[in-house]
Amino acid sequence: MALRMSTLFLRTLREDPADAELPGHKLLVRAGYIRRAAPGIYTWLPLGLKVRAKVEAIIREEMDAIGAQEVQFPALLPREPYEASNRWTEYGPNLFRLKDRRDNDMLLGPTHEEMFCLTVKDMYSSYKDLPLSLYQIQNKYRDEARPRAGILRGREFIMKDSYSFDINEAGLQKSYDAHRDAYTKIFNRLGFEYVIVHADAGAMGGSASEEFLAVSDLGEDTFVRDDAGYAANVEAVEVPQAPAVEVTAGPAHVEDTPDTPTIETLVAALNANHPREDGRSWTAADTLKNVLVMLAHPDGTREPLAVGLPGDREVDPKRLETKVAPAEIEPFEESDFKRYPMLAKGYIGPGVLGEEKASGIRYLLDPSVAEGSAWVTGADEHGKHVLDLVYGRDFTADGTVQAAQLREGDLGPNGRALTLARGVEMGHIFQLGTKYAEALGLKVLDENGKLVTVTMGSYGVGVTRAVGMIAEDNLDDIGLVWPREVAPADVHVVATGKDDAVFLKAAEIVNELEAQGLEVLYDDRLKVSPGVKFKDAELIGVPTILVLGKGLADGTVELKDRRSGERRDVPVEGAVTEVLREVKGEVAGA
Amino acid sequence: MALRMSTLFLRTLREDPADAELPGHKLLVRAGYIRRAAPGIYTWLPLGLKVRAKVEAIIREEMDAIGAQEVQFPALLPREPYEASNRWTEYGPNLFRLKDRRDNDMLLGPTHEEMFCLTVKDMYSSYKDLPLSLYQIQNKYRDEARPRAGILRGREFIMKDSYSFDINEAGLQKSYDAHRDAYTKIFNRLGFEYVIVHADAGAMGGSASEEFLAVSDLGEDTFVRDDAGYAANVEAVEVPQAPAVEVTAGPAHVEDTPDTPTIETLVAALNANHPREDGRSWTAADTLKNVLVMLAHPDGTREPLAVGLPGDREVDPKRLETKVAPAEIEPFEESDFKRYPMLAKGYIGPGVLGEEKASGIRYLLDPSVAEGSAWVTGADEHGKHVLDLVYGRDFTADGTVQAAQLREGDLGPNGRALTLARGVEMGHIFQLGTKYAEALGLKVLDENGKLVTVTMGSYGVGVTRAVGMIAEDNLDDIGLVWPREVAPADVHVVATGKDDAVFLKAAEIVNELEAQGLEVLYDDRLKVSPGVKFKDAELIGVPTILVLGKGLADGTVELKDRRSGERRDVPVEGAVTEVLREVKGEVAGA
């Protein structure tokens, strides 16, 4: 049944909504696809629900094609399984927690590893039952601290999550590869640019993990890639150790550098009072910065850590945190400094850092610090720095750590220059291994009658986020421009003017289009001007627009391509055929 | 793609699950449709999800047919709108409440009157935008005190809820009638016996309300009907006032009736010590029982109420509560008796009851008490009763109230005898009127440019409950027997034995059936005995079963009708045609 604009629950807005920041999000609200119900929580209006259903259908199709079976778990869950996996605690304030009338702790599911694991445990007991892949398309909940990106990052959102169960690592690899292929097909169909990046798997106890990132400046995630196809999010990049260089510096010497607690003041003072012999200026890159942080361990203990890196770089907290997980990074406070009086704030150097040194604080170097390189760094005394301090000759560290913010041009693991870009995580595939199965006791009998722990994978696609990303990536100044496969309708028929004949003919064409299996949005409003109708059609963004108006007297109607803006008159008798050609042609060619 | 038993996520159980009480619920668990995740919270396994999707599709079809538009609101909602409608408080412990990370109160939606009302208010402003009907199919939440009936009464469940918006009462009546028709069509297709009953609308502030009850002894709701088509739930029945009778009793007289604080002891004492002149025995029906309760008003105040009714009847708390709403009924405690020393517990009579009497307690009579009738009742003194006390001659009351439990044979509003039955509420349609629109300020401009409050209706169907009810109403000793339109598959193909030829032929037939558009469940398990396969097929309950086995050598296969148990051999070449005839024939005839 055609959607008729005269009755459709829709009110397009000419002004941007106050609560939207991203261009696509603004258009989704203005064009009547979604509406905010509470911060980070959205209502899906008829047009939005149509698009969402199409995205879901694509995902369902590709999941079914790899033999994954659809189920649906509850969204409201008991605490116990999440306690067993430790996620009840680990999720922190992102988890919506509540109590029922009997004071039982419950939660709104963020993802369902535990529940799937327990159900498989309950039902299956033999290697013969495996492999198994299950999925669901369902409301998920995460209490985001700053839900500002519309449906790109909601607090209630729809996700397709799946879980694979295999008898061993080889089986997991197959299930993982099947999901990777299915996700590739899904994202190829959805209509935005994406890249598959290596992701960090360490914290989840798994062995491999990749993310499907929509390439977009709107993204909160930074990733890197090289020109040979390598791509990874910054947490997962392991940059190579800078190769050793020949020592050319003379002996280290301590100099007075009063009032130089920052890199800027130090470089200025060096250039003013300690000019280099070769005439070059000192830069921040010549200095070695030693950054102190506190590691907060899950058991509640805190431990200091010092990271040495060139003065022109910053520590990337996300990258560092990945390496020290499950510990989290907290600032090194004034009160901490008081407990380590040997640390001369602003002038801290390798002289006191290291497990064997005066502070006893573990000291790790970023791999950009090369053996044999000479540095200006703190002399562990206020107002003094040491120059020509050579790594490997004059000081050592307890190891290295991937800690520095990456920069355009840094060499990646393949030895090629990296470029940086931003992305939005649209999918995540994950070799979980046995972490959850061990915590919840999911074992089956193997071929030899021996109990073995099941090996799991977990895989997610953000469904509502995908709708948001498609919108962000398919718009122009005047509205949305949906890719055909997810558009709320195949064609938008607009009847203009006040001539009954136009509306009669339009209704006839609408019926014919529907008889051909097309979905039609029909603007049958009587007292609305052509200008408003055109503006609405452009805003709503159905890919093909068919306009009936004055030209009908001469036997012509106008066919508009929303994306290119191209218009052409076609004879009214051929209109249905022309529309079909547009719709099917593009789908076939997609 | 056929569901194959060899890989289907399914483990049928031979034993009843410990956590299920109802026969259909036990079978749904045993046959692998659902599984309990927590009390009142269920997981939908692949077969269950198929049935549920078919029920949803039927509902969607009938809602679309009346022009209702599908939307989806969030399940996690802010407190404020529910505060404005007072439901935040009224819902009491049935509402799941929680706080987000910023300490905002939130709730899991039980129904969405408030949210729909606010969204329409936000988008629409004129009578020209009406009428409007919106619906959603969505997870709902109610923290049931005793979630013991499986998916018939879950704490997380799926409901189709719709809301209509009209400019006036006449419009509401049309929207209501359209929903009533759609619901009739839906329930006619779902495969269980149902009845439409008048329901009480008073508490919700609306003007009319009907329930669609599945007729079932499993039901928690009692309803009545007469042989002229009248039906109502007990809360909504208004039984007529018993007509006045001629006074035949002599003057009232007080008698000693020591140790008779209960109706039983009183009747025994009367028969022993005060035989009737006409020789008939005294029965409980000759006594007038005066029951005291406390009304708890929403503002926190409590008020006593006395209800007089024949001693052979009990007060029906649900019926009485409907009449005193929004007050709730609480017991009249010992401490309350202390505050009313004129009440002689066990011997309370109309002598002290009534707003004008010593106690000042409002005194209402059940309509079964006829003017002119004579009663034995308390004499307001311990050990004493008054006999031949005539209503209207010797005592009066402050009014009447529909309070007594109804009995088979009681006369209904049409003056016809009522029969009682039990039912499960499957749907509810409700003329809300302006209650929510007023509370939330939903007004539009009428034809004269005047702001008028919108008139709303709300309508609900329990989707997961419907699946449960279909199961309860379609089963036998050996398993489920799905009605065709909601069965998880059209046909269950069972290949038995170890002969490759059987499995090859079965696979071929499965393909042919699918090519004809049928949904097939295919038992392709290699190492499972025919007996187990037949038991599983009977338990799962697909309406048509096609068995391939030894007979194939002679060119025959067996076609079984799950409901009738009828089996017949058909030639293998004609098997697909026969199956099609079974499937289509019954659907066409349904």
UniProtKB/TrEMBL annotation, chains A, B:
UniProt enzyme class: ligase
Subcellular locations according to the entry = Cytoplasm
Top-level division of the source organism's lineage: Bacteria
Q: Which UniProt keywords apply?
A: Aminoacyl-tRNA synthetase, ATP-binding, Cytoplasm, Ligase, Nucleotide-binding, Protein biosynthesis
SUPFAM superfamilies according to UniProt: Class II aaRS ABD-related, Class II aaRS and biotin synthetases, YbaK/ProRS associated domain
* GO BP of this protein: prolyl-tRNA aminoacylation
> Its GO CC terms?
cytosol
Subcellular location, principal: cytoplasm
Q: Which reaction does it catalyse?
A: tRNA(Pro) + L-proline + ATP = L-prolyl-tRNA(Pro) + AMP + diphosphate
Among the Pfam families in the record, one is tRNA_edit
Entry EC number(s): 6.1.1.15
The residues covered by the Aminoacyl-transfer RNA synthetases class-II family profile domain are 35-483
A GO molecular-function annotation = aminoacyl-tRNA deacylase activity
The UniProt family comment states:
Belongs to the class-II aminoacyl-tRNA synthetase family. ProS type 1 subfamily.
Q: What is known of its domains?
A: Consists of three domains: the N-terminal catalytic domain, the editing domain and the C-terminal anticodon-binding domain.
Describe its partners and assembly state: Homodimer.
- Function, please? Catalyzes the attachment of proline to tRNA(Pro) in a two-step reaction: proline is first activated by ATP to form Pro-AMP and then transferred to the acceptor end of tRNA(Pro). As ProRS can inadvertently accommodate and process non-cognate amino acids such as alanine and cysteine, to avoid such errors it has two additional distinct editing activities against alanine. One activity is designated as 'pretransfer' editing and involves the tRNA(Pro)-independent hydrolysis of activated Ala-AMP.
HAMAP family recorded: Pro_tRNA_synth_type1
Q: What is this protein called?
A: Proline--tRNA ligase
Organism placement in taxonomy: Bacteria, Bacillati, Actinomycetota, Actinomycetes, Micrococcales
Coding gene?
proS
